[in-house]
Amino acid sequence: MSLSIRNQFPGTVTAVTAGAVMATVKVRLAGGQEVTAAITLEAVQDLGLTEGASVRTLVKSTEVSLATGAVAGLSIRNQIPGTITDVATGGAMASVKVSVEGGELTSAITEDAVTDLGLAPGMPVVALIKSTEISLAAV
Fold first, then answer.
1. Contact 32/101 with Cβ under 8 angstroms?
2. pTM score of the predicted model
């Protein structure tokens, strides 16, 4: 199956914390980063997600925010450091490619944000992804 979601990373489930309806699933990505996905308990059961399960993490590029440095005092759990490799602008939106351990992330942000932050190739950034915006697929 082909998907339009650009950000796809293989990983391994390291922990599942179940609630009444939702669950948090911690995943160690191939590059060594740990991310947390918040998905329904039904999805956890349907996918058979348990510690050690192989998964693919999926994140739409519109759900990846960028910061020019580490951010403290923020509820966003997933903060992945990287380096900008490309910035493509045109009209109102921009596509920013970020090299991270184990792969590349794409962030779709406004052109104003690119200008205000001074984003350019070679610049270190931190990709910010809410746990509710990470989807998981069983491998």
1. yes
2. 0.94
| Reduced 3-state DSSP string for the chain | CCCCCCEEEEEEEEEEEECCCEEEEEEEECCCCEEEEEEEHHHHHHHCCCCCCEEEEEECHHHCEEECCCCCCCCCCEEEEEEEEEEEEECCEEEEEEEECCEEEEEEEEHHHHHHHCCCCCCEEEEEECHHHCEEEEC
Return d(Cα 114, Cα 119) in angstroms, integer: 5
Closest to 77 (Cα-Cα) out of 25, 126, 135, 36: 36
Q: Among all chains, which residue has been given the structure tokens 């109102």?
A: 92
Q: At 132, list the tokens.
A: 């509710």
Mean pLDDT of 1-14: 93
Measured between its terminal Cα atoms, the distance across the chain in Å is: 12
Q: Alpha-carbon Rg of the chain, whole angstroms?
A: 15
CB atoms near residue 27 (< 10 Å): 25
Asked if residue 101 lies in contact with residue 9, where contact means CB atoms within 8 angstroms, the answer is no
Task: For the chain, give the percent of residues with pLDDT over 90.
Answer: 95
* Of 118, 125, 110, 136, residue with least CA distance to 26: 136
